[in-house]
Amino acid sequence: MTGPTINRLSAVVFAFVSFLLTGTAGAESITLEAPVTCLGKNCWLSHYYDVDPDKERSRDYACGDTAGNGHTGTDFALRDQASMHEGDGGVVVAAAGGKVIRLRDGMDDVSVRVVGTDKVTGKECGNGIAIDHGDGWETEYCHLRKGSVAVKKGDTVKTGDKLGTIGLSGSTEHLHMHFEVRKDGKQVDPFVGPAPPAIDAACGLGAETLWSKAALAVMLYKPLIVYNLGFSTAPPSLVDVRSGALHAQTFPNSAETMFTWAEIIGLVKGDSILFRVTFPDGKKREAKAALTTVPPEYLPTLKTARPGDRWPSGRYVFEVAAIRPGKNGGVYTAREDISVP
């Protein structure tokens, strides 16, 4: 879907990211820094701008499948709701200097699936902030955490100033900050630049990408992202996974079954998934599957039965590999461990 904006009367913002080359109004172009501080910690770049003008399909700037049809921003996803209360909680910062021209706070952090779309109509962006950078450039930051907005309308901000933290407000089902850039009111893909991409454009960064070298260094493109994984004693649901309720430090030795699961962004037909659980004694339980289809809300899960009357004490290591075949493919991994007393 296309990105909404916070208008003077109605409002729905998607995070518009745009940064001035000089950090002052009047510049003809803009240079962007990363709009979050949690990359490489507990958040990931999860969805990109859809550069394909064909309304029947989608394509990100690298010719991958992580855009979403009609998506007009760049999404930064937090692992789960528990992460909102850990460390810095996913701090959102100004990607460039400018003036705060619109904002909203006070909406609850709750999935739109729970509250219903009618409750967020006209406020799809949730808690959000819009910044004017001059010369027609504007950025917006959506779905911020309730009560986290750290600026006021009319404030002047510098690059890197804290704006708020990642939340679950507005029209969203998962924790993320939707970041959007506009030039003269038109959305711009910051990885490509202000010129509209051609339908047959080559894959890769545009010649006029808006991101700084430092920003690009922490936003290396990955067609597959394993960003949330763990253990549970019962079949996991996406609701429980995204709430953070399943991230326990220990696993009960009396549980009949050990379920290991992973949320993976970007899976398509033909990809493979490898799950491996290593027991305290070094023995391994492994399963691999090639995908012939990717069902909606797919949550790959491995079920392991208890070996005897109790689970052996010690550390259990769960490793996931998402595998994309072909010369442009690769192997994308993550791991999690848990203790059994």
Q: How confident is the prediction overall: mean pLDDT?
A: 88
Name of the level-1 CATH class of the largest domain? Mainly Beta
- Proportion in β-strands: 25-35%
CATH superfamily of the largest domain: Glucose Permease (Domain IIA)
Number of domains: 2
The radius of gyration is 21 Å
Predict the CATH topology of the largest domain: Glucose Permease (Domain IIA)
Roughly what percent helix?
under 10%
SSE run: EEEEEHEEEEEEHEHEEEEEE
SSE layout:
Blueprint: E1 15-16, E2 43-47, E3 74-78, E4 91-93, E5 98-104, H1 112-115, E6 127-134, E7 137-144, E8 156-157, E9 162-165, E10 176-183, E11 186-188, H2 213-217, E12 225-232, H3 238-243, E13 257-265, E14 272-278, E15 284-290, E16 301-305, E17 314-324, E18 330-340
Parallel strand pairs: 1-10
Antiparallel strand pairs: 2-3, 3-10, 4-9, 5-6, 5-8, 6-7, 7-10, 10-11, 12-13, 13-16, 14-15, 14-17, 17-18
